[in-house]
């Protein structure tokens, strides 16, 4: 499967390896802290799944940004949270593994949050980190100043505290500049012309899952997932077969909807997302399958791509 191309105007394909920097940056925070929206804004591409529903992101995804001769590999992670469900345990494992594997940590704290989320993060943060106060466009300047002062008592712990908004390109540029300067001197880990080492098949799964989140209310999206069963790239056409997996027959009926209306709407939105991303025509077939307790049993989770092995 072809890798996703990086269209950054700053990329340099030929450079002296001794002068290049490259490293991994874990993007962390509580569920719905705005991690995926932040990454899409930084990259200028719609890759990370965005939903107003918490815990939409389930697996790590590597997203690459070239800043001059520096390669920054942002690692999108599930929200840091504690729940007893097996799938939630996997998601927490993904976030904690990223914290230990990456060179730098970015902790996103919505400006309206209580500080205890950051204090809990500090208990496990063993790598240098940058604190980002997100969604600052939702509060007054006076409120923002008070919040900054609250966090400043921990200034010995973070490398920088940066207020950011995805609507403010200057704040995002500052984040990129500071992160780039903190990257270790390394040869590139990936071809600088790609935007992600994840395949288009993996991205397609996330885009279809996003369409599910957008078109199904309440808890159903959390009890569903998507399997790509067939992906073929032909000239000017990508042919995709996908299956939405749910727990119960009643959920299958909800996904399909009256006379198939809901499933048709999910398919239309997913196809438009995929065509916008691939710049190709998409022929998309979506089916619905019931696998009882798919997210509660370890073997079923492995079949869905959630591997618990170290």
For the terminal residues, how far apart are their CA atoms? 26 Å
Profile the largest sheet.
6 strands, mixed
Strand arrangement within the widest β-sheet reads: 3-4-2-5-6-7
Share of helix, binned: 25-40%
Mean pLDDT: 83
SS class = alpha/beta
Low-confidence stretches: 1-5, 7-15, 50-55
Radius of gyration: 20 Å
How would you sum up this structure, described in words?
With about 300 residues, the protein is an alpha/beta fold. The protein has helices at about 35-45, 85-100, 115-120, 140-150, 170-180, 200-215, 250-255, 260-280, 300-305; strands spanning about 5, 20-30, 60-65, 70-75, 105-110, 130-135, 160-165, 195-200, 225-235, 235-245, 280-290. The protein has a 6-stranded mixed sheet, with helices on both faces. A 3-stranded mixed sheet has the order 9-10-11. The radius of gyration is 20 Å and the shape is globular.
Summarize the structure.
The protein contains nine helices and eleven strands. The chain has 310 residues and is an alpha/beta fold.
Task: Spell out the blueprint of helices and strands.
Blueprint: E1 3-5, E2 21-28, H1 35-43, E3 61-67, E4 70-76, H2 86-101, E5 104-110, H3 116-122, E6 129-134, H4 141-151, E7 160-163, H5 169-182, E8 194-199, H6 200-215, E9 225-234, E10 237-246, H7 249-256, H8 261-278, E11 281-290, H9 298-303
Parallel strand pairs: 2-4, 2-5, 5-6, 6-7, 10-11
Antiparallel strand pairs: 1-8, 3-4, 9-10
Helix pairs in contact: 6-8
């Amino acid at each position: 499967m072809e890798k996703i191309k990086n269209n950054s105007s700053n990329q340099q394909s030929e450079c002296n390896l001794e002068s290049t920097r490259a490293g991994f940056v874990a993007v962390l925070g509580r569920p719905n802290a705005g991690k995926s929206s932040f990454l899409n804004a930084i990259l200028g591409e719609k890759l990370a799944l965005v939903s107003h529903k918490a815990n939409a992101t389930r697996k790590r995804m590597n997203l690459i940004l070239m800043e001059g001769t520096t390669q920054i590999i942002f690692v999108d992670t599930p929200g840091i949270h504690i729940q007893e469900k097996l799938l939630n345990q996997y998601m927490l494992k993904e976030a904690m593994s990223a914290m230990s594997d990456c060179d730098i940590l970015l902790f996103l704290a919505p400006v309206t949050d209580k500080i205890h989320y950051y204090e809990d993060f500090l208990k496990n943060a063993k790598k240098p980190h940058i604190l980002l106060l997100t969604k600052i466009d939702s509060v007054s300047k006076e409120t923002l100043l008070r919040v900054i002062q609250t966090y400043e008592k921990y200034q010995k712990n973070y490398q920088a505290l940066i207020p950011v908004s995805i609507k403010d390109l200057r704040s995002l540029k500052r984040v990129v500049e500071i992160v780039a300067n903190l990257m270790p001197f390394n040869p590139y880990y990936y071809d600088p012309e790609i935007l992600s080492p994840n395949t288009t098949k993996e991205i397609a799964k996330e885009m279809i899952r996003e369409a599910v989140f957008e078109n199904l209310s309440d808890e159903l999206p959390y009890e569903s997932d998507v399997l790509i069963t067939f992906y073929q790239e032909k000239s000017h056409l990508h042919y995709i077969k996908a299956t939405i997996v749910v727990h119960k027959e009643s959920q299958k009926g909800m996904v399909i909807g009256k006379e198939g209306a809901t499933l048709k709407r999910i398919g239309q939105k997913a196809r438009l997302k995929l065509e916008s991303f691939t710049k190709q025509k998409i022929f998309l077939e979506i089916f619905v399958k019931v696998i009882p307790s798919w997210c509660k049993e370890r073997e079923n989770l492995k079949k869905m791509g959630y591997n618990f092995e170290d």
